[in-house]
Design brief:
- About 50% of the residues are buried.
- About 85% of the residues lie in helices and about 0% in strands.
- The mean pLDDT is about 85.
- By secondary structure, it is mainly α.
- It has 17 helices and no strands.
Length: about 450
């Protein structure tokens, strides 16, 4: 009975921290959805430019988020040890690295048009995406800075403010995008450039909101987070880089697998791409729930890692895995019970190709039911490992699982065996199964638990 009450306590703590983080993830996702809906009502060419430019931007952005994701566990560990100075150092150097990275990738946006044309995009689409990226690229630094501060506040278990700021950003972005895309209220009609401008403005405002809260809130002012910000801390910068770069590459490996799958769907035809996009959007909503919970798991595991409490660390880990399985099971049941209704919500049923899209979408959603369980397990496993500062081996596991296993199976099943879109998605499932199994093995049988009571290596 005592053990059960301990697990119940872990579940309450994870849920209290996880719910606002889940809401924050969904709010960030809806920012993109709002722009997509508005541009879809403006012009098809502008929508295509944003979709292409947005995917290009995301490729670089997801790599840069590694620093902000890595410091969640680092700050939680330092907090458990009562080391406020280290918490400040970790956050500052993550901001430094995010700024350095943002400047380094700026040429990729300035010269995006020839790059996109070299990747096979039409001159018109490449030019439209380039006009979007010239503006959107300016938002890389504020977006990554805000991501680091979001991680800092999450590690302090101040997730409620993270949620409220992200919800406010969603509302402001939708209003600004409407004004600038269509030229309302006396503003110039900017189309896709208006969507990019609105996004950059919101990214800057979001950063200011996080910075003001982190720097001026009475309960946080003693950290002096931005005092003498210009002073380098090379040891901590190296530690954050050693943890953050593998985290960024891990995220890039996973997102790259889905980008490659989208390209393979394009080889089949527009119906396959449309069905794939709808099914993936549905799965992404469920994934955001697991991602928010995984971030909460990182905070809790990082805390117990820093406190040298191996028993609580293991209990919190088991609780996080059990909650992930429960959430994934609910999504699986929904996908299997209402596939037609779900796909219909995202499709114009008056379109001539709607029956084909619906039929393939239902098949893909059935595969997504299996997909969802292992996607949830691999993301919570990554959360567990980041909590104990283990990021390099997970990076290699991700690269092997997604690119060494998942994509080859997708190609073989989709084209060699002739299973089409279902085959491509089957390969994604296989890649996620490998990732989930190997990452879980790494946490439960690797050095993480064995070293939970040993001195914490900085930047291990």
């Amino acid at each position: 009975m005592q053990d059960f009450s301990r697990y119940r306590g872990h579940a309450r703590a994870l849920w209290a921290l996880g719910v606002p983080l889940i809401g924050s993830q969904l709010a960030q996702m809806l920012l993109h959805v709002a722009d997509t809906v508005l541009l879809g009502r403006y012009a098809v060419a502008d929508l295509a430019a944003m979709v292409t430019g947005g995917a290009y931007f995301f490729f670089f952005f997801v790599m840069g988020t590694g620093f902000g994701n890595a410091v969640i566990g680092m700050i939680a560990t330092a907090r458990a040890q009562g080391d406020q100075r280290q918490m400040r150092r970790d956050t500052r150097m993550a901001l430094w690295l995010s700024g350095i990275y943002s400047v380094a990738v700026l040429p990729a946006f300035l010269f995006s048009e020839p790059v996109l044309r070299a990747l096979g995009q039409s001159p018109e689409l490449a030019a439209g995406a380039h006009s979007f990226l010239l503006i959107a690229g300016l938002g890389m630094a504020p977006a990554l800075f805000a991501h680091v501060l979001r991680g800092f506040l999450s590690a302090l278990e101040r997730a409620q403010i993270v949620l409220w700021i992200n919800l406010a950003s969603l509302v402001v972005n939708a209003a600004l995008a409407w004004i600038l895309i269509f030229g309302r209220l006396g503003a110039p009609e900017m189309g896709v450039r208006g969507a990019a401008t609105a996004t950059v403005i919101v990214q800057v405002v979001t950063l200011l909101a996080f910075a003001l809260y982190a720097g001026l809130h009475p309960a946080l002012r003693h950290f002096g987070l931005f005092g003498r910000f210009w002073r380098p801390d090379w040891q901590t910068l190296g530690a954050v880089a050693r943890l953050g770069l593998p985290v960024g590459l891990t995220s890039l490996a996973e997102s790259g697998m889905f980008i490659a799958a989208n390209l393979m769907m394009g080889w089949i035809g527009t119906v396959a791409v449309a069905a794939h996009g709808i099914a993936l959007q549905v799965e992404a909503i469920a994934f955001m729930v697991n991602l928010g919970l995984a971030n909460a798991v990182t905070v809790r595991i990082g805390h117990f890692y820093g406190a040298r409490d191996a028993q609580s660390l293991a209990e919190a880990a088991r609780t996080g895995v059990a909650m992930t399985v429960a959430i994934s099971a609910a999504a699986v049941a929904l996908f299997l019970a209402l596939p037609v209704q779900i796909i219909s919500l995202f499709s114009d049923m008056s379109h001539p190709e709607a029956p084909q899209i619906l039929a393939l979408g239902v098949q893909l959603l059935t595969v997504a039911a299996v997909f969802q369980l292992f996607d949830g397990l691999q993301v919570v496993a990554l959360g567990l490992l980041r909590g104990v500062h283990d990021t390099r081996v997970p990076m290699w596991i991700a690269l092997f699982s997604y690119w060494g296993v998942g994509l080859p199976v997708s190609y073989l099943a989709g084209f060699t065996f002739g299973w089409g879109g279902v085959g491509i998605w089957s390969g994604l499932v296989v890649g996620l199964v490998f990732a989930a199994a190997l990452l879980m093995w790494r946490f439960w049988r690797g050095p993480a638990l064995a070293g939970a009571l040993a001195p914490v290596p900085r930047g291990a």
